[in-house]
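Format notes (please read before filing issues)

Several people have asked whether sequences and structure tokens are stored in separate files. They are not. Every record keeps both together, in the order shown below: the sequence lines, then the token lines. Line labels are part of the format and must not be stripped during preprocessing.
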Amino acid sequence: MCEGFPVEMIVRGYLCGSAWRAYKSGVREICGVKLPEGMRENERFPEPIITPTTKAEIGEHDADISKEEILAQGLATPEEYALLEQYTLALFKRGTEMAAERGLILVDTKYEFGKHNGTIYLMDEIHTPDSSRYFYSEGYQERFEKGEPQKQLSKEFVREWLMDNGFQGKEGQQVPEMTDEIVTGISERYIELYEHITGETFVKENTEDIAARIEKNVTEWLTK
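Then the structure lines:
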């Protein structure tokens, strides 16, 4: 079992999402990374940037943190952090290539790493819509030049819906109830991304008795 680093390695190839919201408000430095002037929403960075966030069981979670703060707090040694950056950029490069083969742009994503017997390993899911944002390659440039929203596959629309309905994850806030339409839309986008990335057709399972299905699958796995 890996002992996880208490940081998430966020890597961004384009200015959008929370980074764009910060940039639009006048911020020109995120996690110690200086951002160029004059950028527009959904514009590609000259080179991908790494903007880590905290991952803590106790205390602030998903808060921006710089490389310098990570090292000062002893969350990783300089040698470990150098490897985390190296692996992050290599994974993002490979993910970008794979997405391009499917007509997609890997916009940004996060990676989680841990150590086992002194070796650093990648942990958790990778390049899923829970951790990544994708644009469609076709029409990207035209939409960007016109200042139009990009056609994307991610959970950003869920986040936007929550914010539009008064929920930002702050203490004391009540999660708004999602309509069947919203839930169906989320499922359809996840299925669409699955089919794009894998090149396979997603086959829906029977959901009439989920508990029995879970019990069956767990039992089969335990008896292997």
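For reference, the curators noted about this record: The CA atoms of residues 68 and 137 lie 35 Å apart. The mean pLDDT is 90.
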